[in-house]
Amino acid sequence: MTILSEIIDFNKEFVQNEEFKEYETTKFPDKRIVVLTCMDTRLTELLPKAMNLKNGDAKIIKSAGAIVTHPFGSVMRSILIAIYELKADEVYIIGHHDCGMSSIDTDSIIESMVGRGIDNNLFTTLKYSGIDMKDWLRGFNDVTQSVKSSVDQVRNHPLMDRKVPVHGLVAHPHTGQLDIITNGYEYLVGK
């Protein structure tokens, strides 16, 4: 049996037994927040519980390392849509300790790509096209600095509403403890 068939079998029972009813909500976040966090599996259930979030409370965006890598990439677009279309009034950028992006080995990733059949010549083509794979895949050395950088990108985005608080936090992936790196309310008061 494949993982897909296990998922589909479970899903049929889930729908038939109407287990979805306990998760019914609207597309608008009840707590009016958008959270950008890491895709780390340890945070899947832990982070919402540690933040007292239930289904429907927040828009949650996940990316490797909770990093805003490009001012007009999909992460920033999702944040802006959450604010302007889906009624979010605050942004939370939450990195975490022991993040895989803090120890990423770009050479190893490229080697793995080649090992899975990506033509090694493609990397030369990409380089001449202005794409540096090592830079594109690069992580960070310090989660606190990474969170600050992403917060700054969101706060200073030309399309960002300057009245929206943008908070930066770091989570502990075992306990869920949240440490405030930058308090968006205090930042707005100080401006």
What does this structure look like?
This protein is an alpha/beta fold. It has helices at residues 3-16, 43-50, 74-84, 106-115, 121-128, 133-137, 143-155, 184-190, and strands at residues 33-38, 58-63, 90-96, 166-171, 178-182. It has two domains: 24-103 and 140-190, Carbonic anhydrase (Beta-carbonic Anhydrase, Chain A, 3-Layer(aba) Sandwich); 105-138, no CATH class. Helices cover 40% and strands 16% of the residues. A five-stranded mixed beta sheet has the order 2-1-3-4-5, with helices on both faces. The longest helix is centred in the N-terminal third of the chain and has 14 residues, at 3-16. The chain is globular, with a radius of gyration of 19 Å.
Principal-axes shape call: globular
Main CATH class of the largest domain? Alpha Beta
Approximately how much beta-strand content do the residues carry?
Answer: 15-25%
Based on helices, strands and strand pairing, what is the structural class? alpha/beta
The major pleated sheet works out as:
5 strands, mixed
Cofactor: Zn(2+)
Catalytic activity: hydrogencarbonate + H(+) = CO2 + H2O
Organism: Sporosarcina thermotolerans
Keywords: Metal-binding, Zinc
